[in-house]
Amino acid sequence: MDFLRSLFARMQGLGSGPVEQVLDELSLEGMARYIQSGDCKNIICMVGAGISTSAGIPDFRSPGTGLYSNLQKYDLPCPEAIFEIGYFKQHPEPFFTLARELYPGQFKPTVCHYFMCMLKEKGLLMRCYTQNIDTLERMAGLEEKDLIEAHGTFHTSHCLNVLCRKEYGLPWMKEKIFSEEIPKCEKCNTLVKPDIVFFGESLPSRFSSSMLSDFPRCDLLIIMGTSLSVQPFASLIRKVPRKTPRLLINREKSGETDSQMSFMGTEGMDFDSEKAYRDVVFLGSCDDGCLALAEKLGWKDELVAMVTREHAAIDAAEGGGASASAANQSSGDGEKGPVPEQKDKPAEQTGAREREKEE
Description:
The protein is α/β, with parallel strands linked by helices. The protein is 31% helix and 13% strand. The chain has twelve helices and nine strands. A six-stranded parallel β-sheet has the order 3-2-1-7-8-9, with helices on both faces. It is globular, with a radius of gyration of 21 Å.
């Protein structure tokens, strides 16, 4: 209905008047001044797989390096099948083999994760909406109330038998995965699946309920490490008020509006047109973008110190093991990861997720 109302309004010439520009400049400097102005009190972050590539976790679609490019060994009918609920129920082995390689707890949060924690510490973070299932947001220090895990989490698992649905915790699932045992329910012997959202499943109910209350109050939307090609997550960028600034930190521009989509009222990103008034893009890695913004805010030393301190604590807890050096991640000079993309299928292929798109 939002789509139809927007289309009708545009056809009638309504809602197309001038919009207040709250940024004094469409640049990273302008964003920093706005954050420090006192008028920016509620920041929402939308993040995808690109924020975790510097931790050593591959994204999904980058040619040659993305996860989908390296699944041939699983003999799948198509790369996406490893995350399709129907295929999983019949052939769970490939997913659990992959889960051992990418299991949460084997990687460290990145500069980008800690930048969001810094926003929280400064009382600016309203919520982080994440497509990721690596739990690095939690590991960095964000709590459940700070997060909307749009594509689920490994923290809990459930029996797939609708008459049972027994819940299992992270330690139980971890033991099963690393013992190379297919997890079966102790009560009914049915397959047990982590509570991540597979293709063909609906998003968590909290996604929709929080979206309705959070986005109308958003003063700044920061989008990082996502191609904005998967619905309904991608549609969130147009849920903020029309005057709310939007910052994209990504290796490529994404979420832009072509002429047809503009006519249909999708409120996509507009970085370059003469009508641009609120959207800013930083092209580069998510870590570099966060470091650059932190520098403009006068927070860079504090952020680098936080990353170094927290990585040292993780190393100490793990007996010195590390997935990447704190120095490289803190400086932003480490190896550049592949183009950030999220793991999910394009909107037209998302099965039950498609039903959550805006009408």
